[in-house]
Fold each of these.
Amino acid sequence: MTQSQYINDFFKTYSKFLSKELYRAMRPNGTLQSTEGIVINYYGGRPSQYLANFVRTFYTIIDFNDKDEKLNNITRYNKKLIDVYLNKIKNPLSINLEGEKLTENALFCEAIKDKKFVYTLELYYEAFYRFLNHAKNNQFLKHTVTSKHSALFLQPTIEFYNALSHLYIAYSNEKETDIHSNINKALSHIHRGTLDYYKKLIKFVDLDTADQEKLVDLRKKEFLSIGINTNDDTKINIIENYAKFVFTLLTKFPNNALKTSK
Amino acid sequence: MNDIQREAFATTKLATTYIINDEDESTGNIADINADLNEEEIEILTELDKLFESYYN
């Protein structure tokens, strides 16, 4: 399969997921019993594992290389996963996005290869990984059970989910300006998601005076960059600097420097 | 792609990792990632984790 075919396949699969998800995400979790005694299961909220899986799959397709058989298997299992998920949803309501009619979009496939876009996606995934890895190694999830700082993981995943919506719109579009504009909007969400991961990690680490000063400097630069296009090097540097800062903090406190709730 | 990013793709285990549900901050609602997944989903995600590991190694 060509990269263009993989991208088409990806958005068709995503469209199937989205056709149910647009409605389902607005419903609560749990089981309800109607007056007639009929039990209805609701699967509300957002299935983060699925969203996270979209992240890695999308990147792998964009960073296309000659491992066709392996990518084929990934695509095949992704479809299987989405089918299982759709079967699991008891509420049958879906929104017809006509995703099955999507045709290959050469303009999108060219635009998405933009080096800065790919690089920002890599930075996002690195932040995702650092967060998960640190969470597992330091067991701070146990602490955050009683912490007010519990909003840690879902938000950046949702940012990527929002980015995917823009990418889907871009892929469904034939106008070059709309394609670029939506890819740029997607980039903004990915940028925000990456910063979310790092900011949440920083919140749990005790900072010495030097680190406090570094953080002040980072925040100032970030604030002064408001309004600058996410594709600009200044913006990308901000993520890189956050990444370096967090990496230094985590290296300094490898075991458990994370604060419990206060 | 740098080594850390490559490792990230190769080692992320979506089938067994933690998840934090931040939709209700007031209760600090945190669930294990498998809480909402059925056996079939866990099985497929495990397979996908292996496939990504193989792809990026």
Amino acid sequence: MNLPVTIYTPESPLRNPLKLILTIFADIWRTRELIGILFQRDLKAQYRQTFLGYIWILLPPIASTAAWYYMTSQKLINVGSTAIPYPAFVMIGQIIWGTFTAAFAAPQAGFNGGSAVFMKLKVPPEAFIANSVAKIIFDLLVKTVLIVAVFAIFWSQLTISWTILLVPFGLAIIALFGISLGLFMVPIGSLYSDIGRIVGIAMPFLMYTTPVIFPLAKGDGLAATLMSWNPLSPAIEVTRSWLTQGAADPNLVLNFLLLIPISLILGIIGLVILRIAMPHLVVRMGM
Amino acid sequence: MSRSSEIIHPSSDLDEDVLIRVNNVSKKFCRDFKKSLWYGLKDTAADILHPTSSSQDTSLRPSEFWANQNISFEVKRGECVGLVGKNGAGKTTLLKMLNGLIKPDTGSIEMHGRVGALIALGAGFNPILTGRENIYVNGSIGGLHKKEIDAKLAEIIDFAEIEDAIDAPVRTYSSGMQVRLGFAVAVILIKPDILIIDEVLAVGDSSFRAKCLNEIQVLLKSAAVIFVSHNENQVKRICTQVLLLSKGAEVLQTHDVSEAFKVYGRLEAVDYGFESGKFTEPLADVISCLILPKIEHDQGLNSTEPINISIEARATAPIGRCRATLFARSSAGEMVAAYQATVGTEDNIIQPGVVFNVYWEIQSLDLASGNYDFCFSLISDIDYQIIFRSERLFATFVSTEAFNGAALTIAAEGKLNTQKTTAYPQLKIYPTSLPLDIIDQVLAVSQDYKYGYFRVAKAANSTVISTLYYMETGISGLTLDTIQPIKDEYWLNCSSLPLNIAELLDSYFKFTFVRNPGDRLISCYLDKVAGRGVKKSMINKALGRNSQDDVSIDVFLDYLSSGGLKSNVHWIPQSLIVQETNDNLDFIGKVENLSDDIQYVVDKIYGKALDKLPSIRDHKTNASEFYTQLSISQRERIAQLYDADFERFGYDKNFWVTASRLNSSGE
């Protein structure tokens, strides 16, 4: 009988890094059905106890847009001029930014969702993370309703060009970048909840240095410097331009595309680290 | 063999039947949570930064301890290992390593084939999802495709007996339902090569447990099983060997399940301070223990009624200010309840030689029905350390309602048989009118099931003992050679029982077995006189003959009728022995009706008949055959000699007529 043999030893799985990477991807492929089931179950479970259901996916960007529109229209704050009407600018910025934050949070959320199972069953953690990522895509699909609404309201001031076809691609890069960064956080974030708290505090600051609510700052000021160094600035700016204006600044596009190799490398490293950390994390889960 | 942490390749092992191979595995844990997190970070970092350095690290860092240490074993297909040990002995850690959830710090683990695991309650169920959805999730985690799960869904639901609840969220399930579903998924759905079952079968009703054990036995034909349980009967039923863990280390690995549990019990006893090992100098001798209301005949203690227990003890060493705690220990060996009392003394220190009292006024025991034994400890008022723990004070059946079953109560400390009786706290003994020689001769007492067994001469003792032994231990095939140690270990041996035990005996289920008097006389003659001849010289001497003269059956009958009838236990009429305890015997069984009558006894004391009796041996003497050669007058002489026996036990004087069961005067 040719039974598969699994051997567990104290050695670091990184002794054979290539094999480890292949194993991880093989596991993800192997558990694709599980990911599907988890995805379905989470979709069902997520809003099972709500009255409004999936409408809750739409409400946060609407509320946030409403708040910023109120503040700017009442001249409580001045964000400067935007290339497209401000509500459309904020709404679309929020949706793109939301994709990033959701992607960043997805690995830890997915991992936490699976922790009860990790303690008891041998299952690749990536399956739970992948499921969490799938939810981002679902949320985005729901949010297209908002984008359609924006176009319906401001159709005369927006440009629909072929570049709109690039938008999913742009969002995918942003999500990938978010996930890669998020993956890095899982091992340490699972041990120390400080990480989650720091992220919670830092995220709004990151948003204000990204052209989500404010247009890209110009000049030599601190805001402009921060925005120019922020890798998310070109991502948001370019994707929004593709969606609402057609062409985007070629320099920004180039910077944006640089995120692809960076994300892929970071992502794979993040997966590897998570795998190595996994048994150490499970030990602490029971405590 | 490659040394990466986790590799999968087709088995190329010659010894293909070994499915689990654990080699010198150790695992460190850290008690301090903050340190543990920090170590976790460091270990992860070390794995990343120094992947090639040998990490067989056997040194402990501060706050660390060995949760598992140097454990090695192999499990083949068809074998079931019972993993036994107290909470914290490292069982779950080992299971988690076997399942690859955590990795060992030393050694290696080889697992061949698909692993099904049921670690802890509701293993991996999502409480929000329905039972049906969870089946798909868990099946998928186990590597099954949707179609495979579809095919087995009905069987799983049926086995788990949750048809009605299958579409309800799992959070609405009782723990029993969760275990049922978890078991069905782990065993029926996954059909593993290796099944790992943590201590989950403690939950759920007994019929389901039986079903699970059956299912495991079926699976065992094609799989290796690791089974964690505290329940000796469960382990005995399905395990082929036991691995006993204590404080992370392997204490014992044996195929003798009873032995393992004996050692386990002893380990536990040491931990609870029962064994003298921990308290080399006992601080007190218990002089008496009085329980009110008295534990009555046929009744245990009522769990819901007030009970007063007082102990009189003599200090053998200075005892400081302390409080006394009475512990109830279940038959599974767990401390299940504690009752407090203050030690009745005015002085700060009880000096050696001073007699003191401890008095518990317990409103209600609040114990579930079952057998318990009780012991007490003295706990220092200053540092709350246990400074003394007694041996068993008494054991009794505790019932939540009036108890109507067979008498199952014992009021004695354990191991009365040992020579060390004086080392144990003494029991307050009640006076008896029973002559000591009779007791000495006829009594053996079971510790586990609380019955007295009157060993009437020539009454198939070995058969009865071996049956009762089987009932108590699950071990059959007892031979004459093995009876002696049993008398020492499992029975309160008569020879060292104190005098005043009548009341003690009253509370036992007492029975004896008798044999057709004619048959008994002839078989005694064939064995003791004509055969081995051990009684020949005694008879010849009494009749004034040469000691080595042959004794014919007629000479033997002459001897008996001339007054020798009462001179030896082997031919003294059994009615005379039984008469001494006339009012006390609960049942008199017949050797001719051995199977049924033993089942009756077993049913009385065990609560149910045994599925299968151990082989009941035939008597070696061929009395029946010999009888056919006797003349009518010889037969009549035998009948006359044992007239009372024939009458009392309802035997036909024509001998060898299988009589129906007879109950003694009690019924």
